[in-house]
Design brief:
The chain has about 120 residues and is mainly α. Helices cover about 65% and strands about 10% of the residues. The chain has one domain: Orthogonal Bundle (Arc Repressor Mutant, subunit A). It is globular, with a radius of gyration of 14 Å.
Length: about 120
């Protein structure tokens, strides 16, 4: 399975569901280390949201931004397409700016540079 298909599989299983990474491992058949790595990245980007957290146990769902990403990927588009279109006409890219703080100063500068 190529990386894009893996991402679509993870996001598809989270859409409309609340799951732990271990649930996604069982549903997708992907290696645990890949799913856990993906969740860390997806959480940092605001594509998934934590619904419940207790010690090391977390439950996630797809965020609104995640649904937009999934839709574009399922329609054959790319993340580049999504960014170029400003994520969606209704939010004017605000979700990217809101998530820039998660990336640190360098991430904020990159987002600002890309929007000018």
């Amino acid at each position: 399975m190529d990386p894009r298909a893996k991402l679509v599989s993870i996001l598809s299983h989270l859409d409309g569901n609340i799951l732990a990474p271990s649930d996604v491992v069982l549903k997708t058949g992907l290696p645990r280390y890949e799913v856990l790595g993906a969740f860390h990245t997806l959480e940092a980007l605001g594509i998934v949201s934590i619904v419940h957290s207790r010690n090391n146990y977390k439950l996630y769902t797809l965020s609104d931004l995640g649904r937009k990403v999934l839709k574009v990927l399922m329609d054959g588009g790319s993340l580049e397409d999504l960014v170029e279109k400003g994520i969606g006409a209704s939010d004017s890219g605000n979700e990217i700016h809101d998530n820039a703080g998660l990336m640190g100063k360098a991430g904020e500068e990159a987002v600002e540079a890309s929007s000018s």
